[in-house]
Amino acid sequence: MLFMLKFIRNIIIVLIVVIIVGAGYFFYVAEVRQEKNNRDYTFEQKKVLKPMVESYLSAYKKRGEEVSIKNDGLKLKAEYVPAAKKTNKTIIVIHGFRVNRTSMYPYSDMFLKQGYNVLTVDDRGHGKSEGNFVGYGWLDKGDIEAWIQYLIKENSKVEIVPFGTSMGAATVAMMSGDKLSSNVKAFIEESGYSNTREEIEYQATQQFSFLSAVKKPIVQIVSLYSQLFAGYSYNQADTVAQVKKNTRPMLFMHGGSDTFVPTKMVYKLYDADPNKDKQIWVAPGSEHVQALADYPKLYNQKTSNFLKEYFK
After folding, report:
1. What is the chain's percent helix, strand, coil content, to nearest 5?
2. Whole-angstrom Cα distance, residue 159 to residue 188?
3. Whole-angstrom distance, CA of residue 247 vs CA of residue 175
């Protein structure tokens, strides 16, 4: 009997150690800044998008500039390109997980061609911005709100629509529940997750199938690490809870075959939005953030029509 109790105790100790060590490793994988955050993704685009990249780079060279702000003790960088024809309307373009602003040039070009000024940002912990941890939208929304104040300071008449993909989409959706300046007119999100904890649990089982049985305790410990080192927990970063407080028009977009941020999450977000001025488009067969490459004309049409309706 004593032997059996000792055996069970040892199994429990081993299991606890495995969970703690596994959580530490997964925290590094999920949240600590890595080299891929800093890479140049300018030309790592699908062939159909490369002319848009060239077009954006040409516009940036002619009339763009790199700008910076400080927020939460971090220096943050972005590229600002005014529209060819003067306007007060500006789109803030926000990238996803472990990429940076160089991955967003096709979107920036699309909005420039639609006639808007474009601010393409590097999130904290990515690109040329400072920071050691990924904010998963929760910390990033505060940074985008600081960029909004920067734009207002530069031009008090500015009208703003934040746009983001993947983690950038979650950033947009999360900030929709905050009290924002009246200069912010609407939101566009593509491929955002409904809840940070749910997405990380999902990724834990996708990347490490052996964690399926213990994903919840491991992710809970990872969240504690995040609270300790980065200043936020995954339970705080609840996109649906934020969208429930939204008061502005929002366009929700997603790939119909997205297995990185499962397509079902966009319906959770759309259903949570109490605002009657909301639209949804699910791109048939598209994988994660591939809708623009798969349907460039339709993507442009969907965003353009939404902006013409709510960004007057």
Report:
1. 50, 15, 35
2. 14
3. 11
Q: Which of 177, 60, 175 is CA-nearest to residue 120?
A: 60
The single-letter DSSP state of residue 81 is: E
Do residues 151 and 160 lie in contact, with contact meaning Cβ atoms separated by under 8 Å? Answer: yes
Which secondary structure element, helix H or strand E, spans residue 115, and what is its range? none
Pair of tokens at residue 297: 């004309």
If you search the block for the tokens 């500039």, which residue do you land on?
Answer: 65
Residue spans of the domains in the chain: they are 1-32+208-236, 41-195+240-310
Q: Compute the half-sphere exposure of residue 305: CA atoms within 13 Å on the CB side of its CA.
A: 11
- Geometric angle at alpha carbon 110, from 114 and 103, rounded to 5°: 155
92-132 per-position pLDDT tens digit? 999 999 999 999 999 999 999 999 999 999 999 999 999 99
Cβ distance 65 to 48 under 8 Å? no
Residue 24: burial class (beta carbons within 10 Å; 0-12, 13-18, 19+): middle
Q: Tokens in use for 131?
A: 């920071």
Lateral strand order in the sheet of 74-81 = 65-71, 74-81, 117-121, 89-94, 159-165, 187-190, 250-255, 278-283
Residue-wise pLDDT tens digits, 118-171: 999 999 999 999 999 999 999 999 999 999 999 999 999 999 999 999 999 999
Identify the three-state secondary structure at position 162: strand
Q: Can you give the pTM of this predicted structure? A: 0.94
Domain 41-195+240-310 belongs to what topology? Rossmann fold (3.40.50)
Q: How far apart are CA 185 and CA 248, in angstroms?
A: 7
Helix ranges restricted to H, the chain:
2-31, 50-63, 105-113, 138-154, 167-175, 196-207, 215-229, 239-243, 264-272, 291-294, 296-310
Token reading at 90: 């500006």
For 34, the token pair is 């890595």
